[in-house]
Specification:
By secondary structure, this protein is of the alpha/beta class. The protein has helices at 38-41, 55-69, 88-97, 108-114, 121-129, 156-167; strands spanning 2-11, 14-20, 25-28, 49-52, 106-107, 142-143.
């Protein structure tokens, strides 16, 4: 029985669940959905997994996702585990999606051309839709040739939010904030 470690992150009152195997990140849920969404991606193996919670295993993944949502990270260095899911074409598409720069978009047609399958736009779009690792494999960056957003497992509103989020500059924050202290002398007399 394979162990799968799970964790969640809450962003704008929406919870994302993610799972990690001994090989890497294996799944990121749609926001507001439950961990059980994973069974839509791994239906044949649902009884072969033992779900466990262990922060020692999941913290590095949580840290990178948190950095992304805090605008301190534009790409991920996490190992991924896509070994038990997907066709060769889907793996090619998921690899190509990871090369789309933060804040940019490509069309399904451009993505099909990038994987060397310019006439397989529908198959490429299907591979995008079957991406099990939202955010980290940023399929929200793939749009229609007309400029319309297209579908997204997390919903079109989430896709738009993610695209807008990536286009916004990071808020400037000072590293050290000064506390508003009253001006008092060493003796506690304000007139000294």
């Amino acid at each position: 029985m394979e162990k799968i470690y799970w964790e969640s992150i809450e962003v704008n009152h929406r919870k994302f669940f993610f799972t990690v195997t001994s090989k890497g990140l294996s799944f990121v849920s749609s926001p507001g959905r439950y961990l059980s969404e994973i069974f839509e991606f791994y239906p044949n193996n649902r009884y072969n997994y033992q779900f466990m919670y262990d922060e020692k295993v999941t913290n590095i993944y949580l840290d990178e996702l948190t950095e992304y949502f805090n605008k301190k990270r534009k790409s991920f260095d996490l190992p991924l585990d896509l070994a038990n899911i997907g066709t060769d074409l889907q793996h090619q598409v998921w690899d190509a999606i990871q090369k789309i720069p933060y804040g940019d978009t490509v069309t399904y047609k451009q993505l099909a051309e990038n994987v060397g399958k310019p006439k397989a736009i529908r198959a490429v779009a299907s591979a995008v839709a079957k991406n099990p690792i939202l955010i980290v494999v940023p399929c929200h960056r793939v749009i229609r040739a007309s400029g319309e957003l297209g579908d997204y497992r997390g919903g079109k509103d989430i896709k738009k939010e993610l695209l807008d989020f990536e286009k916004q500059p990071a808020a400037k924050q000072t590293l050290i904030k000064k506390l508003p202290l009253q001006r008092l002398s060493q003796l506690g007399r304000p007139d000294l």
